[in-house]
């Protein structure tokens, strides 16, 4: 029963690492230096992805540019707080799956790149959703069984 908090914590750690890479890249750029993160593998660069215009999606909605990684960190903290509220977690994790699909499209089609950190975050989001969905269905089945299969009618 402790699987979901562990998965959500991994999401937080991945988002934190993405934020760290962004910070180090910006610091190196300010000093006129090159920065290569551990997640920059061969021709694929998570640094390039995080530092692209798509690394701050809030700007596309008329908001100040806020790092996707910072939003992710806040999101995973929120998911940790609501982890026992199955329906709410199902909704938030479902929304994160939709967002992950959009970000995956941006990553592969628009940026023509691959980011191991990003992909790992997508796996965390889908794992959270499907684990929560299984919990939701199990709880619904137990409730139905406990009430003798009766349903309320008006």
TrEMBL record:
Major site of localization recorded for this protein: endoplasmic reticulum
Transmembrane annotation, as ranges: 60-81, 88-108, 114-133
Membrane topology qualifier: Multi-pass membrane protein
UniProt-listed Gene3D superfamilies: VKOR domain (1.20.1440.130)
Endoplasmic reticulum found in the keyword field: yes
SMART domains, per the entry: VKc (SM00756)
EC nos: 1.17.4.4
InterPro entries: VKOR, VKOR_sf, VKORC1/VKORC1L1
Protein family membership: Belongs to the VKOR family.
PANTHER family (UniProt xref): VITAMIN K EPOXIDE REDUCTASE COMPLEX SUBUNIT 1-LIKE PROTEIN 1, VITAMIN K EPOXIDE REDUCTASE COMPLEX, SUBUNIT 1
Descriptive protein name: vitamin-K-epoxide reductase (warfarin-sensitive)
The organism of origin for this protein: Bodo saltans
